[in-house]
Every structure is written in structure tokens, then in C-alpha cells.
Amino acid sequence: MTLMIPFDNSYALLPGVFYSKQAPVPVRAPRLIAFNADLAAVMGIAPGDVQEMAQVFAGNEVPEGADPLAQLYAGHQFGHYNPKLGDGRAVLLGETVGADGLRRDLQLKGSGRTPYSRQGDGRAWLGPVLREYVVSEAMHALGIATTRALAAVETGETVLREAPLPGAVLARVASSHLRVGTFQIFAARGEMGNLKRLTDYAIARHYPHAKGPMGLLRAVRDAQVKLIAQWMGVGFIHGVMNTDNSSISGETIDYGPCAFMDGYHPNTVYSSIDRMGRYAYSNQPDIAVWNMAQLATSLIQQMPDREAAVEEATEVVHAMPDLLQKAWLEQFRRKLGLTGAHDGDAELIADLLQRMAQNQADFTNTFRALGRPEGRDQFIDPAAYDVWLAKWQGRAESEANPLVVITDTNPAFIPRNHRVEQMIQAALVGDYVLFRRLQSVLATPFADQPDHADLQSPPDESEVVQATFCGT
Ligand code: AMP
Ligand code: MG
After folding, report:
1. Closest Cα to atom 17, ligand 1: which residue?
2. Cβ–Cβ < 8 Å for 108, 147
3. What is the pTM of this model?
4. Which residues contact 13 (CB under 8 A, 6 or more apart)?
5. pLDDT reading at 138 higher than 80
6. N vs C: which end of the chain shows fewer Cβ within 10 Å?
């Protein structure tokens, strides 16, 4: 073995009620399709040869020091409490502590059945694995907290979805896989000792300065505020903001039917399973508050003075909409190239967004071109932009370098949904060219890359992706 992963596991040292020890289920013919050497280096992982890495990241060989387990959690799915979820198709191999001092989980997703699989097969197909690989790495390059992709492997096996499809495994890296739902399960069961143990673990791992359960709640809330404001800033729609997909570390986690918006509209939904639009673009801040209310409800169970705890938790959660609004305003002010805060900024932003919605203006390209005449090309009625631009110019006079701020804040490249779909379709016939090209272009999303201008265009009529399927 030349592949060396310096495991340093902590979750496996918690009592057995938190997980089930579970080895990944071997697959027939693993083939490595991607390996993230930069991330490996940060984690202190010494790469091995291609065969060896295919075996390990497919789960056929458990590397030395790994202590594989499936984590237990519960969660609200579309508002309904499911008392038992857990890793149904993933195992945590273990953790590493990188040269940067950060502890990270290494998980195999699509690694076979576990005690929490319910009716599922424990597997993933190639499409969602490639989507998560590209979109999570793009998110990281955009400067947004996210789980990351260390490797992807084709299994050489077929998984049955709406049709037989090639199976794949994603080696996923996260600051941890603690979710709101991890707390919910022990609170709902009334297991106070376990809840307290988990709270202490989360504080030590993520927020060592936080004091007690309410300190943790505050810290998670602040991390979620920052995250959601950043999602809004890049037009990202998570699609399944269930409490089991809401991370304690404040990272974007569980890329399912997610997408970046093309034409701006606040009610945009892509997920085929979100028929009521619960997780629509503009609902995301409210849903994040709702999720934090669930965390608060769980955390207070362990507080001896329940009345005081309810009061404090209520204050923490009730402050969140204002914090979100403030973070959103800061985010969009910068998107407009504005660094100072002036009265009327919120109205200037709202005015632009309204004009964009009325004109089906492309979210990414409009902001990227802002302040320049080209911006008008994004509008059905270019005069709508001209009127707004005149107002903006008045406001931007007090700014030193608004156009530089605009270019630094608004990406030129996002993983557009139709390109992600094209990438998946190509990979299904063995063509990984677009997969590699997207990875390379999206690694520097704020740079102009004239050779890749085609990746900046919104879909033409034939390319529009109407719905993104959970398709796990
Ligand atoms: P997700 O939609 O990825 O957030 O998953 C929700 C729950 O369903 C989690 O408990 C997953 O582990 C489980 N799950 C999703 N897909 C599968 C599958 N193919 N086999 C077993 N469990 C699954
Ligand atoms: Mg999930």
C-alpha cells in the first residue's frame, strides 16, 4: 500500500448508541474516475496508485486506521418528523487532522446497505455522484462553506432506479457530519445523557469557545446565517433543506436535486420532489430559521432550568431573521460593487431584483456585467436596466472601485444545471471530458476565461432542465 490516510478517529469513540459499526459493502469492478490531489494534500493523505485508490474509495479495502460506521440521526423531511433516518447508504471511514489543524470526516457515499437503509439499496448512481463532485468543489471555489469531494469511483455494478444505471461511490469530506437531526433523535427519545454527550462533542469539535447548549445554538445559528446569505448571493437552491441536511458546522451538505438559478425569479424551484415550493430560492432564509428552531427545541431538553432555557433559545432564534437580513444586505451590497453602507441601498437592490425578475435576466451574468452597458443585454427590455443603472451610478460615485468589487464578488462561472446534465449524459457513455473541463473552469470562478465563454451562457430552449431529480 502506498496510499496512506492518517486516521485519527473521534466519533467512533462515542458510545455505540450514536452509530452502527458497518464496513462498506464491496463492489464488483471499481474504477477510479476522479481524485482530488489538492484536498488530499491538505488532509495529509499520501496518494497511492490508481488501482489501490479505486479499491479503497469503492470500499473494497478498508484502509489501516479506518473504523467504519454508519451514523444515526433523525430529521424533519418537508416538515414531517421522521424518528429514524441515519446513514442508509454511507459509512464514515474515519477522520483526519490536516496540516491546517482541521479535523475532517472521510465518508464513502453509495457504499452499500446499513442498518438504516430502510427500503433503499444503499447505493448511488453515477449522475448524483458526479453532480455532487462538481458542485461541491465549485462551491468551495466560490468561497462558500461546503462538504468536499476527495474521490469518485465507478463500481462496475448496476443500480436500479427508473432504469438500470451505473453505480458509483463518492468519497466525501466534511468538517463533520453532525446535523440538526443528530440532536433531534436523542432529544425526541428523551435520552438526556446522550444529548449532553453529543452537545459536548459538537462544542469541542466545532465551537470550542461556545458555552453550553445555548452557546452552541448561537454559534450554529451564526454559521447558518453566513451560509444562507452566501447561497442567496450566488443564486444557489439547495432543494432539500430538511433538518437532516442542515449541518452543525454550517457547511452545505447533501447535494441532491440542487441547482444554481439561470433566469432570476424568487420562487424558483428545481427539485422534482418539492411540489409545494417549500425550499424555493427565496424561502431558504425562513427555512433556515425553522431548522434552527428545531435545533433549539432539541437542545433545551437538557437544560435544568427549562423556563430560562426556553427564553434564551427563543431570543436566539427570534434574532435570526434580522441577522439574515443584515447578512443578505451586506452580500448584495457587495454584489452591486458597494463597500460603504448608505440609506436606500436595500431599495436599490430590491429595485434591481424586481427588474431582473420581470425581464427573466440571468442571475449570474447580470451581476457580473453590472455597472457596465453590457448589463442591458440580459434584459428583455433593456430600458429597464438603463433606468436602474442611472440610479446606481449616482450611488456608486462615492465608491473607490465599484467595478473591481463587482468582478471580485460576482462569479463569471457557476455549475449551470444544463451543463451538469450534459456532463452526466456524456459520462453515461464513457465520456468524461466535460466532467474534467467543468472541474478545471469552476476552480477559478471569478476569473474571466474567454476560451470557456460557452459555459457562461444560460441554456437555450432545448437545453433547459425543468426539474432536477433526487435520483439518489
Ligand atoms: P437524503 O435525501 O440524501 O438526505 O437522504 C435521506 C435519507 O434516506 C437518509 O437517511 C439516507 O441515508 C437515506 N437514503 C437515501 N438514499 C438511499 C439509498 N439508496 N439506500 C438507502 N438509504 C438511502
Ligand atoms: Mg441527507
Report:
1. 120
2. no
3. 0.98
4. none
5. yes
6. N
